[in-house]
Amino acid sequence: MADAKVIPFDDDRSRSGAAGPRPGRRRALLGGGARRRNGEGAVSPLPGPQPPGEAPDGAGPGTDGTGGVEDARGGGAGVPGGDASGAGQWERRLAGGLAFLRRRITGEYEVDEFGYDAELTDQVLMSLLRPLYEGYFRVEVKGIENIPSEGGALVVANHSGVLPLDGLMMQVAVHDNHPAGRHLRLLAADLVFMLPVVNELARKAGHTLACAEDAERLLQRGEVVGVMPEGFKGIGKPFGERYKLQRFGRGGFVSTALRAGAPIVPCSIVGAEEIYPMIGNLKTLARVLGIPYFPVTPTFPWLGPLGALPLPTKWTIQFGEPIPTDGFPPEAAEDPMLMFNLTDQVREQIQHTLYKLLVQRRSVFF
């Protein structure tokens, strides 16, 4: 596929600061009777209307020397050559949107070997998740600087909430807050890639199968990789066991980090446990449907589709201090005792931070 220059929808953000009133506009609005301060603090009259063809000193684009003013809606009425910043922004956004659609239709965009589509993720998928992140869950992010600005890193987080919204919110947190603009590549369960539509969207968003080989390749390429070792045991645990970490498997994520020499960044997420309080599990129905659990909450399945709406809890995502792994010899990845110790260290750090955040929390919803 041919390379194409990415033109994001919000291409004008970096220029919006320069889209304010143009030189001379304030003079035209004030008229001849207005006054301004000179460089020494003295007050001097602003030049009044000038004869046609003669503009006042310092008048820039947007004034023609006739004392005309811009249209109240930001148009160029009365100002030859005037261009409204708002209209210009919308024109640029429209042009960017049309260029984006053209690339989608013609296939002039790139994906990596895992199916990750950076342009689609930045411009569409993150935009769809951002209202949920900012307005609904009101996510507060702490310690984002603990994720390295360059090179591979393995982010290890707790998992909860019946549906894996915590992973998506963690992805937005890194995407929108990291000073180096890093992207989080999540490792997902097999079930994710067996579901129609979800499979394609997950690939496009940079998710890949939770296996050691894929994770190691991403880390060696310098990517930030996210993993939730509790898996379905964490996301499907009863509400009575909220914020109690389940077993972290056999420590395969530690072995992967050791092979790649990538630091491990513990991550604690508070707020996801309460979005779907799971008070029951219809195991027989789950087996029939081929899913790990079938949740029963105070609203689901009693209210039907409406019961699938998550509660608007207040979230906090904290990234802890990284645990380095590059100081270990290559054979350390095969040492079961070392893997057990590091796994336990990561788990304890996440659990301790969860308790600390819970003590600091004023309420579930505020």
Tell me what you see in this structure.
- The structure is a single chain.
- Strand 5 (184-188), helix 6 (198-204) and strand 6 form a beta-alpha-beta unit.
- The strands form three sheets. Strands 3-11-8-4-7-5-6 form a seven-stranded mixed beta sheet, with helices on both faces. The chain has a two-stranded antiparallel ribbon with strand order 1-2.
- 34% of the residues lie in helices and 11% in strands.
- The chain has two domains: 1-110, no CATH class; 118-275 and 310-360, Glycerol-3-phosphate (1)-acyltransferase (3-Layer(aba) Sandwich).
- It has helices spanning 13-16, 25-30, 85-106, 118-136, 165-177, 198-204, 212-220, 232-235, 252-260, 283-289, 336-360, and strands spanning 35-37, 43-45, 140-142, 153-157, 184-188, 208-209, 224-227, 264-270, 280-281, 295-296, 316-319.
- The two termini are 48 Å apart.
- It is α/β, with parallel strands linked by helices and 366 residues long.
- It is globular and about 60 Å long.
Total beta strand runs: 11
> Reading side by side through the largest sheet, how are the strands ordered?
3-11-8-4-7-5-6
- Tell me the structural class: alpha/beta
Shape: globular
Tell me the name of the CATH class of the largest domain. Alpha Beta
